[in-house]
What we know:
The chain is α/β, with parallel strands linked by helices. It is built from eight helices and ten strands. The longest helix has 18 residues, at about 205-225.
Amino acid sequence: MDLKILQQLNIERDNRRAAMVVTNLVNGEGQLVLEADEVDGALGEAVQKGFRSGKSGVVEVEGAELFLNVHVPSPRLVIIGAVHISQALTQIAALAGYDVKVIDPRTAFATPERFSGVELQADWPEDVLKDSPLDAYTALAALTHDPKIDDFPLQEALRVGCFYVGALGSRKTHAKRLTRFSEAGITAAQMEKIHAPIGLNIAAATPSEIAIAVMAEIIETFRKRGMVGS
């Protein structure tokens, strides 16, 4: 691999940005493609498919064999609120291969006994996210029902472009949330990205069922990112 390509690739990986090295298997020429780059035609389709799947492989484009070496950051899930739904969601997310963090300043809820083996921070989200910022490969699920705790991380997730932003609450609760967010300078286009009520509509009733619905929606959003209409 060309040294300049390798150096740039390492920069992208260090900053948790997706990148792909496209190498012509006949002449050995390579190029670095970023997820935000616009690539036309059949190669563009192959590149977008590779970024969505996260899998490397050989493709044939216009008679040329190309190896797509895909580097996609591991998806993360940040859960705001150490509630019953969160207890189930942390386990399901871990099974799906997600790195998980739970944030809740309420020390009565955020206890190691309730979240064994989970990264748990009993502090305000604004303090935690200052040292551990969100990014485009992070999903954020706000589950406390408390605007004092949920609003900041939700707004921050929208500002940085998290691939998934979900919030627990009724439509009435969400309407009030949107009013607050508009007053805080969040645009209508940004607010449209909030999944609320959170989770796929599977008529979930128990905390575990709601957690399954939420995780399914997160996975769907992650795998369909970049697709037209997604």
